[in-house]
Design goal:
96 residues, mainly alpha, 4 helices, 52% helix
């Protein structure tokens, strides 16, 4: 735990969530909600801009930079059904 706390100064606005499982992935509903809340708070646009900046800095000037294909935020029908089934399963595992 102490070695993990030492890393906090490496991040901007670090968030800490402690659970009883030690170094294992938490499985209780409240812990999972805290993790999902953190993931939801990560700005996707910022991540995309950082990736694009990485591509620009690592790509030689003589090579063209690939243009990313626009993607819809909506999953296709097969993936949407898989997501529904996964949510239903998680609801049964974590009822609260």
């Amino acid at each position: 735990v102490e070695s993990s706390r030492l890393l906090l100064s490496s991040y901007e606005n670090p968030r800490v969530h402690e659970h009883d499982g030690g170094h294992h992935v938490p499985m209780r509903a409240a812990d999972c909600r805290a993790i999902l809340s953190f993931i939801d708070s990560v700005p996707i646009v910022q991540m995309k801009e950082e990736r694009e900046a990485e591509v620009e800095t690592t790509t030689s000037t003589s090579m063209p930079v690939p243009t990313p294909t626009p993607q819809s935020d909506e999953p296709d029908e097969e993936h949407a059904q898989a997501q529904v089934e996964e949510c239903e399963s998680l609801t049964m595992i974590f009822p609260d």
